[in-house]
């Protein structure tokens, strides 16, 4: 889901993603990627940090455009009254006391430019928070795909182990009848032992991935997670052109770079506006004895004599704008390249999935059935039967790997376009 942000909208952003998420109790934690994302919105410390950073940037907008605080001074004149009295700090006893209230006034337009630059910086922080969330969401989606893959691999290996148990029984029967060598039964048992070792390895990998997911959720490494559910893949073929347009509009990294450029341009305008002086107004009532005897009004203007300093600041501002422009273009090209790569890999994975599901896997199963029938009649040896079994296993694993690869590439595409598909 794409969530458009406006400047100073971080609290609204946090509220929207909280309301948009389904209730945490709606599905067991870990059953789907959505359940992990729901939990992560309120628990991931890095995302919380980025939100607080954006809050801080939004809070800097108002003071950036405000006038500086006025100053107040008090001046005690002739504290001995021409030597008539001992030195004193009492305003009513000195020769006169001058009270001054002074307010600095920037050149017209400077405050608006400072506020605009701060708003652009706040927008940059907003988009950085969105980018952090997109990165976190992709990590969780990829980890969920990996959890699904490991669970399915364990199921496949378990089914193959059951098949080998049947083959082992057949070999023993044929060996007892003198129709097969003892080596066939030994090979069947050895193959099953290898599968058990593979199951142990898959279980260890599953615990590792679960620990990584729990780390992203700020939970203990061994905290329980529900079994990963079915895979999540797009129903239609994804096209580059419409996705590239959505990327340009909604990618948070690009939005952050646009905000960075906007801030740099406002700062450049402010640097040129600093060629003009600032002002100060002051009002000074003067006290003699216990009464206000006189009033002074002062007008002050700064003299922008240090033109070398200002020209250097202007060159710096111009260079910053040029750098921000180049950085935005680089981010756009990098993102488009990543989108093209992800779509190509996604399409390749879907092609492999379709080929395996429609052709390779059915053929491997038919070959295994034929090999089993031929082995029972003594037409093929046990090695051929094992090879047929391995082909079925490999085809099923290839199908699963293609599905998981497609899920991972889909998660990357969603990160780049800034919303779910």
Architecture overview:
With 421 residues, this protein is α+β, with helices and mostly antiparallel strands. It has one domain: Outer membrane efflux proteins (OEP). The chain has helices at 10-20, 33-43, 45-59, 61-64, 110-176, 182-216, 240-250, 252-273, 307-376, 382-417, and strands spanning 71-77, 96-105, 279-288, 291-301. The chain has a 4-stranded antiparallel sheet with strand order 1-2-3-4, with no helix packed on it. Strand 3 (279-288) and strand 4 form a beta hairpin. The relative contact order is 0.13.
Helix-strand layout with pairing:
Blueprint: H1 10-20, H2 33-43, H3 45-59, H4 61-64, E1 71-77, E2 96-105, H5 110-176, H6 182-216, H7 240-250, H8 252-273, E3 279-288, E4 291-301, H9 307-376, H10 382-417
Antiparallel strand pairs: 1-2, 2-3, 3-4
Helix pairs in contact: 2-5, 3-5, 5-6, 5-8, 5-10, 7-9, 8-9, 9-10
Summary, kept brief:
With about 425 residues, the chain is of the alpha+beta class. The protein has helices at about 10-20, 35-45, 45-60, 60-65, 110-175, 180-215, 240-250, 250-275, 305-375, 380-415, and strands spanning about 70-75, 95-105, 280-290, 290-300.
């Amino acid at each position: 889901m794409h969530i458009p942000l406006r400047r100073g909208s971080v609290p609204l952003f946090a509220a929207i993603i909280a309301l948009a998420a389904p209730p945490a109790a709606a599905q067991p934690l870990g059953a789907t990627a959505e359940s992990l994302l729901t939990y992560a919105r309120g628990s991931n410390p890095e995302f919380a940090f980025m939100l607080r950073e954006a809050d801080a940037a939004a809070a800097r907008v108002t003071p950036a455009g405000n006038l500086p605080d006025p100053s107040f001074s008090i001046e005690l004149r002739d504290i001995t009254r021409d030597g008539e009295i001992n030195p004193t700090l009492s305003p009513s006893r000195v020769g006169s006391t001058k009270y001054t209230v002074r307010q600095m006034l920037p050149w017209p337009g400077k405050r608006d430019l400072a506020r605009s630059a701060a708003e652009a910086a706040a927008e940059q922080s907003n988009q950085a928070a969105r980018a952090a969330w997109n990165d976190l969401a992709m990590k969780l989606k990829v980890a969920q795909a990996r959890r699904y893959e490991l669970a399915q691999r364990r199921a496949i290996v378990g089914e193959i182990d059951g098949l080998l148990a049947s083959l082992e029984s057949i070999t023993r029967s044929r060996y007892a009848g003198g129709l097969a060598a003892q080596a066939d039964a030994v090979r069947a048992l050895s193959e099953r032992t290898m599968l058990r070792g593979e199951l142990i390895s898959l279980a260890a990998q599953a615990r590792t991935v679960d620990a990584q997911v729990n780390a992203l959720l700020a939970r203990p490494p061994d905290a329980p997670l529900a079994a990963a559910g079915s895979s999540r893949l797009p129903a239609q073929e994804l096209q580059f052109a419409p996705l590239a347009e959505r990327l340009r509009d909604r990618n948070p990294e690009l939005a952050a770079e646009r905000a960075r450029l906007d801030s740099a341009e406002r700062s450049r305008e402010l640097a040129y506006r600093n060629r003009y002086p600032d002002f100060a107004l002051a009002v000074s009532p003067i006290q003699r004895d216990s009464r206000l005897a006189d009033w002074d009004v002062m007008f002050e203007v700064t003299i922008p004599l240090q033109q070398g300093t200002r020209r250097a600041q202007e060159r710096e501002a111009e260079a910053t704008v040029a750098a921000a422009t180049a950085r935005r273009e680089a981010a756009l090209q990098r993102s488009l390249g990543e989108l093209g790569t992800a779509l190509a890999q996604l399409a390749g994975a879907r092609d492999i999935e379709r080929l395996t599901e429609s052709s390779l896997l059915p053929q491997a199963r038919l070959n295994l059935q034929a090999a089993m029938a031929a082995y029972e009649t003594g037409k093929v040896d046990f090695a051929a039967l094992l090879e047929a079994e391995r082909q079925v296993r490999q085809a099923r694993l290839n199908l699963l790997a293609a599905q998981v690869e497609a899920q991972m590439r889909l998660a990357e595409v969603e990160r780049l376009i800034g919303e779910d598909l």
